[in-house]
Amino acid sequence: MNELQGAGVALVTPFNADGTIDYPSLGKLIDFQINEGMNYLVSLGTTGETATLTAAERKQVWEFTVKRVNGRVPLVAGIGGNNTQEIVQQVEQFDIAGYDAILSVSPYYNKPTQEGIYQHYKAIAAVAKLPLILYNVPGRTGSNISPATTVRLAQEFQQIVATKEASGNFAQFSEILRDKPANFLLISGDDPVTLPMMSLGAAGIISVVGNAYPKKVTSLTKCVQDGDYVQARVLHNDLLRITDLCFVEGNPCGVKYILKQLGIIDTDYVRLPLVPVGSQTQQAIDKEMGIIG
Question: Which of 50, 122, 179, 283 has the fewest beta carbons under 10 Å from its own?
């Protein structure tokens, strides 16, 4: 899956002040990412506030995104949740035209066993018409996909081509890299650990802060690919503080505020139960934006 090498971005979903989807801003964001060199885009990952969108809205966002991208970069669709039967139906009904892969988050809240996680992804893989990317984010889902389960899925289903890992566990990353099939990709799911994960052999990052700083994120992954760790460390350090501020009051609240300040989107509206970042965080973000440029 060469399409998944380097830097991808989990696009936010811009909203108008009345809470409706702001398609002009979404189009502007997509163009910004592509013009700044982002390698691929993820439409409606969890950063896209997908859990708060209706089925009709998700369909409209996917259709708008594929038309706006128009084949300029690879495109991944986020389809995941904790109701396996519903996710299987969504994957079966998904219009794959213009998309290259599906990213599917591990079931949240239910806290399934490893066998339950395996059976969940087995059911999705059985109907998926596109390559499938696992997404392990135990800090949000409440359960971890173990390295053994990841490797089992990778070995048994050719449809499963990668995992987005946001466990923060480097022993786990190392086990996956040691035991995985040769063509199976490990992708960072946390911006701050992109550099060390890629140094171990990860393929790149699906980024949040890349919404606002796509050139820095893509440059970081390119430096690591080229073996230029001196410049990679500079970019890594540049992004640390602003990335932390993106998450201090919840994702994507912080990065939406940055995008509004940059003029990429018109509002930093987020749907409840999220709320925009407070004044103290705004001031901290403004200060850091002035530092990194």
Answer: 283
Cα–Cα distance for residue pair 124/269, rounded to 1 Å: 33
**Residue pLDDT, tens place only, 242-252:** 999 999 999 99
Tell me what pLDDT residue 289 has.
Answer: 97
Are 133 and 104 a contacting pair, CB within 8 Å? yes
Q: What are phi and psi of 80, to 5 degrees?
A: -155, 165
Structure tokens at 191: 């911006």
If we measure between CA atoms, which residue out of 276, 240, 274 comes closest to residue 261?
276
Return the structure tokens found at 244.
Answer: 């932390």
Structure tokens at 30: 């997509």
**Nearest Cα to 177, choosing from 204, 149, 151?**
151
Supply the residues annotated as catalytic: 135, 164
Distance, in Å, from the CA atom of 26 to the CA atom of 64, rounded to the nearest integer, reads 9
* 70-81 pLDDT, tens digit each: 999 999 999 999
Q: Yes or no: say if 173 and 186 are a contact pair by the CB < 8 Å rule.
A: yes
Whether omega for the bond prior to residue 252 falls within 30 degrees of 0, making it cis, is yes
Domains of the chain: 2-226 (3.20.20.70)
How far is Cα 79 from Cα 74, in angstroms, rounded to an integer? 16
* Residue 40, helix vs strand vs coil: strand
Cα dihedral sign for 257, 217, 48, 273? negative
pLDDT greater than 90 at residue 190: yes
Position 293 scores a pLDDT of 82
- Tens digits of residue pLDDT in 105-127: 999 999 999 999 999 999 999 99
Positive or negative, the CA dihedral 95, 56, 103, 113 is negative
Q: What is the pLDDT of residues 115-167, one digit of tens each?
A: 999 999 999 999 999 999 999 999 999 999 999 999 999 999 999 999 999 99
- What residues form the annotated binding site for pyruvate? 47, 206
Rounded Cα distance, 113 and 144, in Å: 9
